[in-house]
Amino acid sequence: MPDAAKQRSDALKNREAILQVAHNVLAESPDASLNSIAKRAGVGAGTLYRHFPTREALILEVHRHDVARLVDSVPGLLTTHAPLDALRQWFTTLATYVRIKHGLGEALHSAAAQEVVSASWPPVTAAVGQLLDACERAGEVRPGIDPVDVIMLMSCLWRTPNTPDGTAQADRLRELAIDGFRR
Questions:
Q1: CA 58, 61, 62, 63: dihedral to nearest 10 degrees?
Q2: Strand, coil or helix: what is 162?
Q3: Which listed site, 53, 68, 97, 158, has its alpha carbon 20 to 30 Å from 121?
Q4: Helix axes 147-154, 111-137, angle to 10 degrees
Q5: How far apart (Å, rounded) are the C-alpha atoms in residues 146 and 161?
Q6: pLDDT the model gives residue 158
Q7: Which residues, 6 or more positions from 154, have their beta carbon under 8 angstroms from its beta carbon?
Q8: What is the signed CA dihedral for 145, 149, 152, 157, rounded to 10 degrees?
Q9: How much of the chain is helix, strand and coil, in % rounded to 5?
Q10: pLDDT (0 to 100) of residue 1
């Protein structure tokens, strides 16, 4: 591999490591320092700052990365799970992610952040549409359910406390919503 190609490959690997570690670290502590993220990712602070010059830039890219990963998971879920189970699992994962995002507080309330968050809406809506279409084809939900309505209804899942009781409540709420989707 030529030096330039190897450098690009290493840079991409470092970037992915930083994003994964940042996701995990920020989920644990929204106030975690960038230096602690760099250290846990096994890169120097300079490498982190080369990829993400500000805390906001890193947080926004973690958000983009997480949304893309969640949206991209739909085909795999539909391959390995019955459509309704795929829908359940996908919304449980989304709720976990949104709880983390809400924990980042002010970091996701700037104008730049609002652009990134708004840009994630169409792919998320399309992913929900794919899940609903599969459920409809399987006869598990009634036809014509609007994905935006489902997202709004399911938003209760990430408003429950991040506790065992909150998880149980989220599961009950999700099942109540799904019962409403049935024929």
A1: 130
A2: coil
A3: 53
A4: 110
A5: 27
A6: 85
A7: 91, 94, 95, 174, 177
A8: -10
A9: 80, 0, 20
A10: 47
Contact 158, 142 (CB under 8 A): no
Between CA 31 and CA 177 the distance in angstroms is 34
Each as own residue / partner, the long-range contacts of residues 180-183 (CB below 8 Å, 24 or more positions apart, any chain) are: 180/153, 181/132, 181/135, 181/141, 181/142, 181/145, 181/150, 182/140, 182/141, 182/142, 183/139, 183/141, 183/142
The count of residues in the chain is 183
CA distance 102 to 119: 17
Query: In whole angstroms, what is the distance from residue 22 CA to residue 19 CA?
Result: 5
Q: How far from each other are the two terminal CA atoms of the chain, in whole angstroms?
A: 57
Rg of the chain over all Cα atoms, to the nearest angstrom: 19
Supply the pLDDT for residue 27: 81
Please give the Cα distance from 52 to 150 (Å, whole number).
Answer: 34
Q: Which two tokens stand for residue 33?
A: 């320092």
Residue type, position 62, single letter: V
pLDDT along the chain (183 residues), means of 10: 66 91 87 92 94 89 90 98 97 84 61 81 96 97 96 90 91 95 86
SS3 of residue 32 by DSSP: coil
Q: How far apart are CA 50 and CA 27, in angstroms?
A: 23
